């Protein structure tokens, strides 16, 4: 039997609950395809800060690197919100992304037919939305140097960051995005602010150049302000979107909210080689942590992405996706997606129902 | 009679049509309050590029500076899209903002009761939305230095920009925003990315400090990715939003699309002293230019903001706002806001109806 090692990073808030449930589903789906999964649980985020004084202990990064794929719950919470930068849970997340070199973040925003009414958008606008945002994850203003605090020529204190992209960084994320678009609807929209920013001008130039390697994919360009509008006006016009780190942060969250089911959406972060990082796009939701109220489906679907993009076991991924659909068809809903006439369940029970459907 | 000089910058695409109509409304509203307006029309954007080879001729900036307020139509078009940066219409816009020092951009996003069904959001979500986005307009990554193209230590070409804010820049925009919030619902939400960016950390620190001068305003903070979501999830939670230049560009466009009536929304850009710049938030819409199809109401309402924020003639501003409401109540609609049962009119006719209602 094939055997893989998985690093589990439960993290903070609802993270441990959703990861525990998703792990069982992952194991069950794997074993049905003859894949054995071994787990190692490590500390990250606030949990690591409390236990080890840093948001990403060296052992955690080392274990993650040595494994075949990583499943992350969520990180952060009020408790650490006012920490200095190097002691923020978020810094642990940024450091593991950089440490693993997972430069391509895939964030699907799909409106499931069972949940179309959960969207705040009108049914006819939301129905059938199926967008994949490919966000550059290890470059741009998140990591650019110089950064910090200084003094300007008037003697005033300043805070500053650098948005910077190299040709190599743009080319590699563009290629991932074209590959993704090719396997989906064949349409790629590159989002930038090339009418103002030099970093975006180079972005647009390189994405346009890489397009010649993918003659079967239709490329368009859109300014980020317009993209933020078009996602609200007519999200169905989009198939695959590729954009930089900060624009991707904003637009992928906007797109996911448009689906109305943010508790349902997974993400995959992958690099050139080495293990990928898989996590729900929702946060740690400290307000409902430990109450068995969290929706584990985003993490379960992240486990499916782990099987597909991380381990290449598409058949097992498909099993999970089908089981989730069936569970929804059977009427089971956590609080965040509940509507009258469906069956309200907690986090654990939702996991059990998915296991049954498997 | 009080007398003021107004610089008109019709610009490109539908700009000339909507400015011509708005000018007549502006004059009529002014004269009813004993205010005489004199106009000087100047070149800007693509029109200036074609006629004078630069997007903002020196005479235009000088005339604008010497006047009491500026009314701008729209700039840009496919024709100049591939121009080098210093020859882009957009560069003219950025230069006039900087040249006038109009650091505070006020962008209302209001859902008018007559147009609530134009929103793609469900009626119960859109109804009653009334947000004012206060965007910092002359700093941040739009203007920060260093910027340009270079080579990194691997010898690869790069494009880069600098996001930078000084204490003075943050303090003055924060004060404007608190003043605005005080006159509205008394709630200010400051949007940043302080969990990642140093420029945002300083932003949050200073906005928090300035809050002590406005004990009657309730301040909250939100990360930009969350704000992009919350605008879709529940826009009614927002009263006044203050944010930096690039986040303001994105979020104000998103907010305006949520109202469903982007052809209706005005904006005001004001500085410490000197003339303000007033413009619709929509673009130059080259596809419908010259066809008498454009919606002039955003420019007409920008003229109202000009009277209120630019000249301090609130009574005349109010007249325009009431006339616009009445015109909508009378059922007149341009194509962009048309719905069955209303009367479809062109740009000029819409202007005439507003004049009648005045
Ligand atoms: C927590 C934060 C640093 C992170 C980001 O901005 O990348 C999050 O918003 C995300 O999108 O994964
Ligand atoms: C045209 C462009 C430079 C401008 C901006 O980004 O500021 C526009 O989008 C706006 O919001 O007024």
From TrEMBL, chains A, B:
Its cofactor is Mn(2+); Mg(2+). It is an enzyme of class 1 (oxidoreductase). One of its GO terms (biological process) is L-leucine biosynthetic process. It catalyses: (2R,3S)-3-isopropylmalate + NAD(+) = 4-methyl-2-oxopentanoate + CO2 + NADH. SUPFAM superfamilies: Isocitrate/Isopropylmalate dehydrogenase-like. One of its GO terms (molecular function) is NAD binding. Residues 5-354 form the Isopropylmalate dehydrogenase-like domain. Transmembrane segments: none annotated. Homodimer. Catalyzes the oxidation of 3-carboxy-2-hydroxy-4-methylpentanoate (3-isopropylmalate) to 3-carboxy-4-methyl-2-oxopentanoate. The product decarboxylates to 4-methyl-2 oxopentanoate. This is 3-isopropylmalate dehydrogenase. It comes from Hordeum vulgare subsp. vulgare. The lineage of its organism: Eukaryota, Viridiplantae, Streptophyta, Embryophyta, Tracheophyta.
């Amino acid at each position: 039997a094939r055997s893989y090692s998985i690093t589990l990073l439960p993290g903070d808030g609802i993270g441990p609950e959703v990861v525990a449930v998703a792990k069982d589903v992952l194991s069950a789906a794997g074993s049905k395809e003859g894949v054995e999964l071994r787990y190692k649980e490590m500390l990250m985020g606030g949990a690591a800060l409390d236990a080890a004084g840093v948001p990403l202990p060296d052992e955690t990064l080392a274990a993650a690197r040595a494994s075949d794929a990583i499943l992350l719950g969520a990180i952060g919470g009020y408790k650490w919100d006012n920490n200095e930068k190097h002691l923020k849970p978020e810094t642990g997340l940024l450091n593991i992304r950089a440490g693993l070199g997972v430069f391509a973040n895939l964030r699907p925003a799909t409106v499931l037919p069972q949940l179309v009414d959960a969207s705040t958008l009108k049914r006819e606008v939301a129905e059938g939305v199926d967008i994949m945002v490919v966000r550059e994850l290890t470059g741009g203003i998140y990591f650019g140097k110089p950064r910090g605090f200084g003094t300007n020529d008037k003697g005033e204190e300043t805070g500053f960051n650098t948005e910077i992209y190299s040709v190599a960084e743009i080319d590699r994320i563009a290629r991932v995005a074209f590959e993704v678009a090719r396997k989906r609807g064949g349409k790629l929209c590159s989002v930038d602010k090339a009418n103002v920013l030099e970093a975006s001008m180079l972005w647009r130039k390189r994405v346009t150049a890489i397009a010649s390697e993918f003659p079967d994919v239709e490329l368009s360009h859109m300014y980020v302000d317009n993209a933020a509008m078009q996602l609200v006006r007519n999200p169905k016009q989009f198939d695959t979107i590729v954009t930089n780190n900060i624009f991707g942060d904003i637009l992928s969250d906007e797109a996911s909210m448009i689906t109305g089911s943010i508790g349902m959406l997974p993400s995959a972060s992958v690099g050139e080689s080495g293990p990928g990082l898989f996590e729900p796009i929702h946060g740690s939701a400290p307000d409902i942590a430990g109450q068995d109220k969290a929706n584990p489906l985003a993490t379960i679907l992240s486990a499916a992405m782990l099987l597909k993009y991380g381990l290449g076991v598409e058949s097992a991924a498909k099993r999970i996706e089908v089981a989730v659909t069936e569970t929804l068809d059977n009427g089971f809903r956590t609080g965040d997606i509940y509507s009258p006439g469906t069956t309200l369940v907690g986090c654990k029970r939702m996991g059990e129902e998915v296991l049954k459907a498997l």
